[in-house]
Amino acid sequence: MPTMPTQEELDSVLANLNARVAAVERSQADFRSMTEAIKAFGDTQQLLADVLRSNISEMRATADDSNQRIRTLEASVATIAGLLGQTLQR
């Protein structure tokens, strides 16, 4: 016939289980804080990506505007050169 465990044995098993439960709870808390940190990092990266996309669009618009101005200046210089050439031939 099996013998009943002593109170000390039961207390020891209960203490062991409590320690294991506490370790699992700490592990879960660490996991949750790690998950929150990763999520915050992801949010920051998304914000940075949005800012970079906006800046790239603005830079592209500035480059397009600069290119248009350069083409206008080139056309003006060509017109002036043509007029000077006509004037010098007279």
How confident overall, as mean pLDDT? 93
Order of helices and strands: H
**Which spans have pLDDT < 50 for at least 5 consecutive residues?**
none
Whole-angstrom Rg: 38 Å
Helix percent reads over 70%
Q: What is the overall number of helices?
A: 1
Counting DSSP E segments of at least 2 residues, the number of strands comes to 0
Task: Report on the biggest sheet.
Answer: none
Classify the secondary structure makeup into a structural class. Answer: mainly alpha
Silhouette: rod-shaped
Distance between the termini: 132 Å
Note the beta-strand portion: under 5%
Write the layout of secondary structure elements.
Layout: H1 7-89
Q: What does this entry look like structurally?
A:
The radius of gyration is 38 Å and the shape is rod-shaped. The model has no long low-confidence stretch (mean pLDDT 93). The chain has 90 residues and is mainly α. The chain is built from 1 helix and no strands. It has one helix at 7-89. It is 92% helix and 0% strand.
Question: What can be said about this structure in brief?
Answer:
The chain is mainly α. Helices cover 92% and strands 0% of the residues.
